[in-house]
Automatic annotation (TrEMBL):
L-threonine binds at T32, H64, R118, A138, S178. It comes from Pseudoalteromonas byunsanensis. This is Threonylcarbamoyl-AMP synthase. Gene3D superfamilies: DHBP synthase, Threonylcarbamoyl-AMP synthase, C-terminal domain. GO terms for biological process: regulation of translational fidelity; tRNA processing. InterPro entries: DHBP_synth_RibB-like_a/b_dom, Sua5-like_dom, Sua5/YwlC_C, Sua5_C, T(6)A37_SUA5, TC-AMP_synthase_SUA5. It comes from the Bacteria.
Length: 329
């Protein structure tokens, strides 16, 4: 049985700490999405993460720590840029890829010589990390290829019975996974778009940052079909979505869930029989609620999910990335 523990309760934190020390798994809230955590210093515990998720062993995990001072414990050498990036973005949704320290288990790094590391912006988890005095290896707390959970209930939906406990910290504030920045090479590279944009990073570093079209590491961020509801997702422009839907019979419309944000589409959909859900046109709010909405619509009595194509400017790059993987075949 998986126990649900309130994160703002001291006894709950003590319990979670004991569970982690004993080599079992605890799902934790972060500001981005919920993570599925094990003590990063216990390879046997970390192996259980891959089993619970059904994730291939060569997909590396992020190590979560409670402050930038702890980075040196996990990496071979701390480059200058780390202090600048930490000052600007930690605690927060930025993961740095660095050459790993010798002692860091390759179970954590998926066999790679680098390690991903970040300080999450969640006060209860930061407290837990300082009590543990280790790092927490944690991927998102969803079964492999599914949508990341942004509340404790969604964690239970995919993980109930497979893990010891879930720390419930309420809904995630950011709602989309961290930006992954590889600083293990000369030119920093963004391996996964996220809430912190390329321009924000370039401003802080004062140098150019690359976004490679594809990279070699076999990682979920590089898997085309990922972040998927169990129902097929189609990404459509506002116009195409409106005309296609209104061309269908009412019973056919009723079999489709539509996730949209724009006023024109709202007007065009009025009177249709589709199951509708509206997100904000403000990027922050949209990102906060996207996975929640997809989880909800996945459970609605429909056979398809149609999503209105979001705006195309840089701020929305992470949303585009996740939605195109959601809809990939
Ligand atoms: O916001 C987040 O990043 C959440 C929360 C829980 O921190 N975590 C998360 O973990 O999204 P996960 O495992 O679902 O995605 C992490 C991504 C994967 O694409 C993984 O392959 C990549 O980070 N990654 C981790 N270590 C890496 C490494 N050494 N080299 C390249 N990519 C790495
Ligand atoms: Mg994930």
């Amino acid at each position: 049985i998986t126990e649900v523990l309130a994160i703002d309760d001291e006894q709950s934190l003590d319990k979670a700490l004991a569970v982690l020390r004993s080599g079992e798994l605890v799902a934790i809230p972060t500001e981005t999405v919920y993570g599925l955590a094990a003590d990063a210093n216990q390879p046997d515990a970390v192996r259980k993460i891959f089993a619970a998720k059904g994730r291939p062993a060569d997909h590396p995990l992020i190590v979560h720590v409670d402050s930038v001072d702890k980075v040196e414990r996990w990496v071979a050498q701390v480059p200058e840029c780390v202090a600048k990036l930490a000052d600007a973005f930690w605690p927060g949704p930025l993961t740095l890829i660095l050459p790993k320290a010798n002692h860091v288990s390759t179970v954590v790094t998926g066999g790679h010589s680098t390690v991903g590391i970040r300080v999450p912006n969640q006060s209860g988890v930061l407290k837990l990390l300082s009590m543990l005095d280790s790092g927490l290896a944690a991927p998102s707390a969803n079964p492999y290829k599914r949508i990341s959970p942004t509340n404790a209930e969604q964690v239970m939906y995919g993980m109930d019975g497979k893990i010891a406990a879930v720390l419930d910290g309420g809904p995630c504030e950011v709602g989309l996974e961290s930006t992954i920045l590889d600083v293990s090479t000369d030119v920093p590279r963004i391996l996964r778009a996220g809430p912190i944009t390329k321009s924000q990073i370039e401003t802080v570093l004062g140098c150019e940052v690359h976004i490679p079209q594809s990279h070699n590491v076999a990682v979920p961020g590089n898997v085309k079909a990922h972040y998927q509801p169990s129902k097929p997702v189609q990404l459509l422009s506002s116009e195409l979505l409106a005309t296609t839907l209104t061309g269908l019979s009412r019973s056919a419309q009723n079999d489709i869930a539509v996730l949209y944000y724009s006023e024109p589409l709202q007007m065009a959909l009025e009177g249709s029989a589709a199951v509708k859900m509206k997100l904000s046109s403000d990027k922050q709010l949209y990102g906060q609620n996207l996975y929640y909405a997809l989880h909800q619509l996945d459970q609605a009595d429909v056979s398809q999910i149609w999503v209105e194509l979001p705006p195309t400017d840089e701020l929305w790059l992470d949303v585009h990335d996740r939605l195109s993987r959601s809809s990939a075949k």
